[in-house]
Structures are given as C-alpha cells and as structure tokens.
Amino acid sequence: MSSDPMAGNRFVVQYYETLTTSGVRLFLARHDALVVRLGGESGQWDVQEVSDGNLNLVFLVHGPAGSVCVKQSLPHVRVDPNWQMPLDRTEFEAAWLRRVAQIEPERVPVFLLFDSDMFVLVMECLDNFVTLRQAVGNGGDAVEPSRVIAEFVARTAFFSSFLARKLEDVMPDLSFFAKNTTLTRITFDLVLSDPFRPHCRNHWLKELDRDVAELQNDEAVLLAVAYLQQRFLASPQALLHGDLHSGSIMVRGDDVRVIDGEFSLYGPIGFDCGLYLAHLVLAWAAAPSAPRRAHIVDAIDIFWAEFRKAFLALWQAEVPGGDLCSRATFSVYPSLLRLEQEQYLDSVFSDMVGFAAAEIIRRIIGYAQVTDFDWLQTTSEKAERQRDALVFAANLLRKAPQSPEEVSARLRI
Amino acid sequence: MSSDPMAGNRFVVQYYETLTTSGVRLFLARHDALVVRLGGESGQWDVQEVSDGNLNLVFLVHGPAGSVCVKQSLPHVRVDPNWQMPLDRTEFEAAWLRRVAQIEPERVPVFLLFDSDMFVLVMECLDNFVTLRQAVGNGGDAVEPSRVIAEFVARTAFFSSFLARKLEDVMPDLSFFAKNTTLTRITFDLVLSDPFRPHCRNHWLKELDRDVAELQNDEAVLLAVAYLQQRFLASPQALLHGDLHSGSIMVRGDDVRVIDGEFSLYGPIGFDCGLYLAHLVLAWAAAPSAPRRAHIVDAIDIFWAEFRKAFLALWQAEVPGGDLCSRATFSVYPSLLRLEQEQYLDSVFSDMVGFAAAEIIRRIIGYAQVTDFDWLQTTSEKAERQRDALVFAANLLRKAPQSPEEVSARLRI
Ligand SMILES: Nc1ncnc2c1ncn2[C@@H]1O[C@H](COP(=O)(O)OP(=O)(O)OP(=O)(O)O)[C@@H](O)[C@H]1O
Ligand SMILES: Nc1ncnc2c1ncn2[C@@H]1O[C@H](COP(=O)(O)OP(=O)(O)OP(=O)(O)O)[C@@H](O)[C@H]1O
Ligand SMILES: [Mg+2]
Ligand SMILES: [Mg+2]
C-alpha cells in the first residue's frame, strides 16, 4: 500500500470524501436547484462515471427533466494514485468558468455549483458532444472549430488583460490565480522541463532514440526553452485556460465548448494559442491522407488569422478602457496605435510558436501523450509520423518562423 | 472643507487615528519591547515629526536607552489632503522590510513592529544618517553608495526571483504584493503615463515648453513608453523596492540603508535599477562642476558593472535552487548557461535604460519633482540643466543604447 493519499494536502479534508455513483446521487439531492434541473427523484437519475482524463473524477447525471456534469478532484493523480496532489484544482476551474462565462457565455458549459468542502464542481452536461480530438481524428472539420477557438482565445485574453481592464481590476484576479501553483507546477515540469532533459517520466518509441538525444543536447533548443520558462512564469498578460488542447474542447455540430479550466493562470497569451496550435500539428502528423493534412494546415492558417483579426478588432474599438489602452483611444495617434499593436501581436506570435513546439515535443516524448497516433498499425509507422511532428517542433525552436506563412510553408512540404 | 478623508477607504478604520507627538508616546508605551528599547518613562522620550515625503507621517523618537522611527499612513496624500488614499501602504512596506531583512539585513532599518489597526510601522531609527540625495548634493561620494546599492538590488532581486526560488515559494509573495494596487497605480500614472501627455498634474519651467511639446508628440518616445507600461505591469521577475530614488536611501559614512519600501511589487528588475540610475542622472545634470559631473558618470558606470557582477555571481553559484536555474546547475552546458545569462541581463539592461528615462522625465515635468536643481540661482540656469537631463532621457527612448559604455559616452560629452 502507498502512504495516506491525504498526506500533504493543505486543505480541510474533514468533509471531503471521494464520490461514488451513489455518493453523486446523495450529493445532488441536497441541492434544490439541481434536483429541479434533473427532475424526478434521485432514484430515477442515471449516473455514469466517464473520467477519461488524468486527474479528476467526472460523472454525467441524467434525470427526467435534464442533466448535469459533476467533477471532483482526487487527492492524487487519477491515473497514478501514488502521485499525491492537493484538492484545490476544482476551485480554480470553478473560478475560471465563472469569469469566462462573463466574457463568452456560449462557449463554456453553464456553471451550476461549486462545493468547497467536497471540491466538487457541477456544470451543464454537454450531451452528445465529443472532444475536438475525436471529431478531427474521425475526419471531421478542423477549420470552423479553429475559427471559433481563435475568437474565444482573443476575447477571453483581451477582456481579462490590462488592455481592457484597469490594474485595480486585473490585480485581484492575477493574485488569486497565482495561487494555482499545483497545476502551474505540472505544466512547468511536464511541458517546459522534463522533455528537455533525461527524466524518468519521459518515454517514447525506441525508433525516436536518436531524435530525442539530439533534441536534448541542442543548445539552441535548450536556450529557447529556458526563455519559454521565463515567459510562462513571469508574463501575466491575461487569464489563460492553461491546458487548451483538443481534449479540452467539445463539439456538437457547430456548437463548440471549452471545458476543463483547472490549469488556469495569468500568463502569456501565446501560451493558450500555442497549445491549441500544437494539437493541430499533432493531428496533422497523424492524419491519414495528404488532403487531410492540407485541411489541417488550413485550420492552422485560419486560427492565427482569426485570432489576430478578433484581437485587433477589440483593441480598435472606441473605448476599451484598460490601462494599456489609454493612448490607443487618442485618435490623434493612429500610426502609433498600429505600431503598438504590431509590437504586441509579434510577441504573442513568437510565444505561440515557442509554446506550440514545447507542447508538441512533450506529447510525443513526455509523461502524458496523445491518442492521435493510436490508429496507426505498426510502431515504425507511428514513429515516422511522430518524427515529422518532433522535427517540425524542434525546428520551430531552432529557427523561429517570422510569419504565419512561414509556419504553414514548413507544414506544406 | 474637503469631504470626509476616510471616504472610500476599504479598511476597518475603527481603531485608526492619525498620530500626534503625544499619540506616538501613548502608542509606543503600550508595547513592552519598544519601551525597553527606548528606556525610561514615556514622558522622557523626545518625539520629533520629520515627515518630509509626499505620503506619510514619520516620527523619530529618542529615549534614554535608544531610539525608534514611527511611520504611519494617512488616509490621503500628506502634501495634498484632497487626494484620498487607502491606508494599507504601510502594510506593504512592513512586508517588504521583513522579506528584504532576510536577504540584506544590514541594508535596511531593523523591523520592530507593525500595527494593522493603526497602520503604523515601527523600525530602527537611523540616527545621524542623511539621504543619499542630500549627501551627493553636498558634494559627497556617489561611487561607493552606488556599488552598495548595485549589490543590494542584485541580491534582493535574485533571491526573490524564480532564479533562486521554486514557483511554490515565489507565487504567494507575488500574489500578496499584487494587492499593492494603490501605489502601483501612482507609479503607473505619475511615472509612466501623465508626463507623456497633457495632464493637469504636470508642471515645468516655461523655458521647457518646446522640449515638452516635442517629447509628448514624438511617436518613438510614446511607443517606447507603451512598451515600458507593459513591462511594468506584466513582468513580475522579482520583488522590487518600487521607489528606489536617492531619497529612499540613507547614508552615514559607509553605512548605506534602503528605506520606504511602500511601493514594493513584483516587477521587472530593471525598474529598480532604472530608478536609481535616473537619480544619478538628475544629480549629474544639477552638478556644480565638470569634475563633479565626471564623478557621477563614474558612479553610473560602477552601478551597472557591479549589479551585473553581483547578479551573475549569485546565478553562477553551485545550487541556486530556483525553477529558472535548474538547467544552469548542469555543469554539462556551461556555454548555454552563459547565453541564458546574457539574454536575461540584456533585457534587464534595456528595461533599466527605459525606466530611467521615464523617471528622469517625470521628475522634471511631472507631479513630484526633485530638489537637486534648487541650489541654482536663476530659472534659466535651472531650465538649462533640466533640459540636459530631459534631452538625454528622451534620446534613451528614441534610440536605446546597446551597452553601458554607450550610456556613459552620452553623458561624457
Ligand atoms: N460538462 C461536461 N459535459 C459532458 N461531458 C463532460 C463535461 N466535462 C467533462 N466531460 C467528459 O469528461 C471527460 C474528462 O473531463 P476533463 O477533461 O474535464 O477531466 P480531467 O480529469 O480534468 O482531465 P485532464 O486529464 O484532461 O485534465 C471529458 O473528456 C469529457 O468526455
Ligand atoms: N528609519 C528611519 N530613521 C530615520 N529617519 C527616517 C527613517 N525613515 C524615514 N526617515 C526620515 O523620514 C523621511 C520620510 O521618510 P519616507 O521617505 O519613508 O516617507 P514617505 O512619506 O514614504 O516619503 P515619500 O514621499 O518618499 O514616499 C525620510 O526622508 C527620512 O528623513
Ligand atoms: Mg483537466
Ligand atoms: Mg514613501
């Protein structure tokens, strides 16, 4: 047996217990609004555990009138009970959900309840949605969702940033999310550290041995990563989702929702952009045909173009009101405003490219990998595709592309 | 009469009252440790009000056995009772003092007490010290204090940064100091905004009218300032003093102390460096003779050289232990470490230069000006000297110097 899973937890765990399907029923029955939403008696509710992520328990509950999704943190990593972890991550997810709902209510599940004793978050159940990863993996459209996510990132970033808000409004949020150290640590270690050195959590196909050795000994790569580490920890431009891969996005037709904001933090806007971009690149590398690859490259082009357009449109609007926009409202200096915007977006672009590279790499050689390559029959096929992604990513770090066209040109080879 | 000075104060002001000399006596008498330190009876204590800053009340108290300094926030700006202000700034000063005392105990007054009801900070009284501004203005040495302050900034910055500490240790402090919004607002407005646009708080000698108009309409200057605003708000590299001018430094012989950390925040290290540099430049512009000017340029050279040396020495040390240093400890990559360090220090240097420029400008045309030029007899003499500083500063923003040698070359003309 491993040691007490609650050991080291800095929270009052007096009332905490891990939910089971019957525990979910009892929990929900205590909240009138949820009972009304579900309808009928608790005995009539259908409770399914669907946890498929690494960290938490997730239940979907259906009653005669409606449904809810129940998410609870565990005192350890779900897929590794020996890896202990504080419980407060649902609190940050709940806070993220409520803030983002004020900006993009149609792009997130409706927030219903957060219980700080049980570390339980209850939200709208997204019935008949699938993750974007599944949709794209099954040949679905990648372009329209990328357009939607681009606008989502632009809007949530802009409206939580110093561009749209006074420092008196930003700082309390920045201060709050700075406490999300458990999951910030995970990102720092798993995305920006471990993959770039020998570490027991790394693993990869043996066919990639040489690529990995090269990568981990390339000073240009390591210098770029050191810089990304600084950007990640010390560039709080906006409230980020923090884990915006295609498994954190659910789609049903043209309805696109972002879930799982437990990694949220104030950080560089290019981090969210970069994670999204990385998973498009992974889908590109795993795609079954040339036209399918081309389709995903289109999605990549659209993503940045749309992000840029949406972000600039918000910044251009008459009175954004934030501290970093005051001068912009002076219509006396239109050319200055243009220069400021280019400077800002150039830096978001270069962050995006760098973080995308790190994310691609860690999803191929790090602890938590992606399922995109699973459909391939042989390891040598898999390794070949993964090498495509790995080489592309390493080259982003070795020689940063200067324009979005350069990014897609490198993929259209 | 102005409105209620407590209006808008977000703190419990139930127990708060503004101290008078007799109030100071009663306050101190309630604290045994302070009574012991002062010695004798409270009636024997000499209490002098010495407030000469813009914001707070300061009393020096002497008893038969020892002395203390008592600092209290007012619910308004001391020199402008109509400008209301929350009381919590002493709390941040107390927090700064305690953190810095762990790193540089010999460079700050000893922390004695903080009373959160009265917003009173009690610390060691620096008997027979004068401010560095006075010392240098009176022809005293500028070189040795600059060496000391360079090391002070290097050490406090390094040890509070992600270079020396794990993110789990930095984030709680970052989170706490992010709440110092009142004084962060003051800096943002008075240093980085108002002077660069027409604003009623600005004022200057009429001889400088043309220079000010030019400055406020120069797009290169305004673009540089927009970037500095971003750096200031969203680059929490280390715990800064936040107001490190020569009036926040006290000297007695070779004993140098830093006081008045109420503006403390997590920010770009170059901000503290830049403020210090700015006041050397102001002293240079106001200096009575060519050899005196040369002496101050020497101090400027020494300041950056010493800062750089001290900072690198800390980073080079075997096990700094911070998240941004992990790779550095790998002795396998000495050339990588060197590149990382250059990249980091280049950015501190360019921040320093930019913030120095903004600070010089605001001290000549903004709300709170410096006394350095007061000894000059005629306004035209003053204006000429101030123009020297103003032009130097504007040129720093127009065309950033690429090396410390370039900075001093521009001053040695
Ligand atoms: N609101 C919802 N409605 C319907 N299904 C949901 C909802 N939220 C989550 N799910 C399902 O539960 C799964 C796990 O959710 P989620 O990604 O939030 O969990 P996690 O433990 O935080 O995972 P990760 O390892 O990605 O952090 C999702 O892939 C999805 O299938
Ligand atoms: N510990 C101390 N010992 C002796 N004198 C002190 C001490 N602290 C402050 N003083 C004196 O009080 C004066 C004002 O102190 P300080 O600068 O901290 O006040 P302030 O109101 O915050 O000013 P500012 O406008 O610079 O913010 C100093 O210039 C110095 O002369
Ligand atoms: Mg998750
Ligand atoms: Mg002060």
UniProtKB/TrEMBL annotation, chains A, B:
Keywords: ATP-binding, Kinase, Nucleotide-binding, Transferase. It comes from the Bacteria. Belongs to the methylthioribose kinase family. This is S-methyl-5-thioribose kinase. SUPFAM superfamilies: Protein kinase-like (PK-like) (SSF56112). The keyword Metal-binding does not apply. It is an enzyme of class 2 (transferase).
